[in-house]
Specification:
The complex is a heterodimer of chains A (394) and B (242). Chain A has a single domain, classed as Orthogonal Bundle (Cytochrome-c3 Hydrogenase, chain B). Chain A is 50% helix and 12% strand. By secondary structure, chain A is mainly alpha-helical. Chain B contains 7 helices and 9 strands, in the order αββαβααβββββαβαα. Chain B has a single domain, classed as NADH:ubiquinone oxidoreductase Nqo5 subunit (Beta Polymerase, domain 2, 2-Layer Sandwich). Chain B has a 5-stranded mixed β-sheet with strand order 1-2-5-4-3. Chain B has 242 residues and is of the alpha/beta class. The radius of gyration of chain B is 22 Å and the shape is globular. Classes of the chains: A mainly alpha (394), B alpha/beta (242). Chains A and B meet through α2, α5, α9, β6 and β7 of A and β3, β4, α5 and α7 of B.
Amino acid sequence: MSPPPTASALREQQAYVAAQAADARVNVELDTGDMTLNIGPQHPATHGTLRIACQLDGEQVISAEPLMGYMHRGYEKLCEVRTYPQCTTLINRIDWLGSFANEVPFILAAEQLMGVEAPPRAQWIRTILFELSRIANVSLFLGDMGVQVGALTPVFFAFRDRERVLNQIEEVTGGRFHPNFDRIGGLKDDIPRGWIAETHAVMAKMRGFCDEMEDLLMGNEIFQTRCRSVGVIPGDVALSYGLSGANLRASGVDWDLRRDANPGLAWDQVDWRVWTHPDGDSFARYWVRLQETREATKIVDQLLDGIPSGPIMAKVPRIIKVPAGEAYVSTENPLGEMGYYVVSKGGLGPFRVKIRTPSFSNISVVPWVMRGTYVPDIITILGSLYFILGDIDR
Amino acid sequence: MADGTGDEQPDDQAGDEAREALAAELSELLGDAVVESHVEAGQNLWLRVDIEQWHAAMAALRDAGFAYFGFLSAIDWTDAPEGRYEDTEFDAAGAGEEDDEASSATAEETVRRGGGETRFQLLAQLHSPARHAAVLIKADVPEADGAPASVPSIIDVFSGADWHEREAHEMFGLVFDGHPNLEHIYLPTEFEGHPLRKDFPLLARAVKPWPGVVDIEEIPPELEAQLEAEVMAEFEASGAGA
């Protein structure tokens, strides 16, 4: 046992405590600047391997710089040494949650150069599969956003219900994630018997899933507090950074390539609307995606009822040679505008393919939007911007 | 779509007229900055601008409502062997034929939309959400001492151009004047070379034969005829052509 403190030691200690208390009372500013926080490359909010180097001042972010390249696979170069049909295998793996939607703009660009048009039946089934991959992709976001704010339940619901949609895609294409089903001039195969009724049933279930997410998350007070007025991106900034998809529409810009620059798919044949939200915050981005998923189920329902009869492939040669020229086709993919700029010199493969991916532009706004936010909000903002690493790094 | 191909033609014509009108309007707006414009009916509108006025043209287009920044990239127009070194045996053997058929059939003028003759071309795309219109803008990048001359950065016009210019810098070796942080974006800092240049070989392509029947290289004519006959027979049998 230690001896009792002397009187002088006690006085010293009391003086020290009093000084500390005085400091606390007048709220002496401590130097908290210059701390570096690395988020990722392995972090659940990064959907892959994205690293964000943050400079912090206490809890506040001074700067946040995304560092990419952990997954750069060089698809633009690889496409140059492949034939057109071989390219779609690579293209499937850009946004791996909505693979079929990736194939469509590339195939359309090649068709434009060749002057081939897929028969109406193929265009309708393409549109249906396109919207199904949107639902599969975005439904995962709808659940995943819960995880970013600490709610675990929604993501399990999302995985359960997404499986239903993947099953429908698999029944037609044979692949859950990488269908590789789109062909220049049409589709590989027709839809199987009984598929239409099954898909109707799945769409009804997915609408139920959207309602569930609305009940579970959007009305939740914690979710609202964490997302409302957080990560606000005004419309003009969004345009300048090239944000697209739901991120742009959540900033109040009424722009949807399905409606405004339809490259020939069946969207103009059905009745649907584009949802926008004026707020531009994380909550708005969630809200717009939820509405869009609902809208997509309605699009699919209508399209299923109106599939025209006829051939599934146009008359195209087995060995595809694309005439010389340049074409750019972009479509409204689950994540935003995905476009392919294809340059052909008349060979069996493209001369140059520029892949415009939505996540690359969507994530480029991160340094702007993160400035001045707080550490816990980094995760919700990243989550609400919704990106896929394969889509950033290509 | 649902009514068949009958109503496609008028649609294309209408799109064509709209693009022609837009091309005329933008040419007037940009004045002598526009070197050439090209409209592909029902597809796209290309404008080729003078590289000296690249920055001014982009700013003028933004102020005219083309506020949505699509992408910025570049094209290397060099004729090079597909992913190989230029001096490999394979290419040396096929070089003669290649020159006779391929390059004469695909003379540069027929390929390049909006013309141009330099090795490197800048390429960007802008949308106007208000007008539901898009435009592709190109500019020739002149070469000096074997390297592309520097071009003005448009980062102050479109903030999103930041990363696109960094990508074009590392992939093509273009230099953007006025860019505050022109560093590698995907590749390691110490990486040498510019992978998307045509003279940058793809090692996988150089060291082993390509799998599969249909390669990107020319395939033997007799095999092509055989495959073609097969597919046509299949097609006739299915009755799809009727």
